[in-house]
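The records we work with from here on pair a chain with its fold. Each token is a code from a learned vocabulary of local backbone shapes. A record is reproduced here so that you can trace the correspondence yourselves:

_____
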Amino acid sequence: MSQELIDLRQSIMEGRYDDALAIVDEWEWMSKEQILQKIESFLVRLLVHLIKNQVEQRLTNSWAASIRDSVLKIQRLNLKANKTSYYINPDGWEQDLENAFKDAIFEASVEVKAGVYKPSQLSEIVDKVGVMNRAKRLIDLTYNYSKEGLRDIIDDEFCQLPGGEDWNLK
């Protein structure tokens, strides 16, 4: 990064504004790529826990915490600095979900029922459409609620998951 700053300063001082803009464009692209990679990481984490929940038909506090945290982090990362636009728009998740699902199956195979399933076996057991729809529903909520409101809504969503029927009971 320091070399890029030196190059940027040099380009500006020498009046090579096209070169300076090219450096800024590269930084912008790298920043966006890092954010998208982080979103993908949280998306995989979300899917892993939804897969575990579906296959094992239970909801642990740990899984709920991971699901909740993943959704909240996706919301925070996806909103651009201008607070009015997103890196991934509501209708743009299909490919990201597909790619993340493949990785999530692999990771979940290690954890589901203490790792008794190979990824290919787990793929056959999991209702992919159900998991993907649940994930998409949780992601869609990130566009409709503030960070504060989203926390309560996610808690309500836990009641819809297997094993979460009495999640909100006191």
